[in-house]
Amino acid sequence: MSITDILSPSDIAAALRDCQAPDSFNHKKFFQISGMAKKSGSQVKEIFRILDNDQSGFIEEDELKFFLQRFESGARVLTAAETKTFLAAADHDGDGKIGAEEFQEMVHS
Q: Residue 23 — φ and ψ, nearest 5°?
């Protein structure tokens, strides 16, 4: 399954356009524009599985910086500040990584 089986390519493109400039990424805005915030819990968990590049069951900080590239290979890498902010927004248990439940809570918050 690919991300475009769940999210519309035009919505993904609009979300990526919105955060092209370094330090302009806002996860809540990205989730809204991409349509992810409107998806069911099971669909968000499927997106999580696609984003979990190493299939560890977690999205670690080194995977998170490539978040936008998981939607489109030519997208930019998140800056260090964006990555830290994004991680802090979801990592409720403080283990330095985002689990599927944490990701779903962040998308739907």
A: 65, 20
